[in-house]
Amino acid sequence: MGRISGVYGVKGWVRVFSWTQPRENIMVYQPWYLRRDGEWQPRRVAEGQRHGKGMIARLSECQDRDQALALMDYDIGVRRDQLAPTAPGEYYWHELIGLAVVNLQDEALGTVDHLLETGAHDVLVVRGERERLIPFALRHIVKRVDLQAGVIQVDWDKDY
Question: Model-level pTM?
């Protein structure tokens, strides 16, 4: 959902890089789960707000700058059951990562490694025998997403 990217002030506040849309939505979730070195730990957010183009927050156990510095570079996650259900044809990025990608000729193009956010469409970064960047444009390029089968079918030539 985000990452702790810096400290703000001397009273335990941290700068938060949020991947939620809109950015403020990260403050809706309680608790946050913080991870560094593979271990997740729940932490409650005492307060938070938008600050410039980003977000700042203070976690309930964090009272000073030194405690905030100790949280640098932690990933922020939430439990799946904290997420709102998606509408038909909408997906959370984490649901797409790892899915196999095949074209209309049933040729394997690789698997979704991650996604990129662009102005027009999000982009699937597909890794196989080579890396492909495929726009996530439903109906135009992405023809079918089958989460149960773990497959995304795209109108994309193997030579692109």
Answer: 0.73
